[in-house]
Amino acid sequence: MATRVYFMINVAEEYRQDGYQDILRDLRTIPEIKAVERVSGECDLLVKAEVPVRMIFIAHKLRAKEWVKSLQVLRVEPMLPDEYQELTPDELIWLKGVVPAEVA
Fold first, then answer.
1. pLDDT band for position 101 (cuts 50, 70, 90)
2. What is d(CA 85, CA 36) in angstroms, rounded to the nearest whole number?
């Protein structure tokens, strides 16, 4: 079973001029990467990956890229059904709207 992770990437200034097109082409060469989003805030790119083995291998691939200024990893840990027991009906309805169906 694959592990879902998100990589928060800050891009080095000199690689931002072309609208990230070269970076997107570079990321397409990594088969584990499923989605890339430009974001504003703590990072420049949010990269979603599904890694069949260990997330660290993909993190090392990304960290080695010359355009990566910094990298943070967020590992997705689905909530287990036991964790739902203490929630109110309103909280469960809210969760249904924010948790992907594949996790629930």
1. low
2. 34
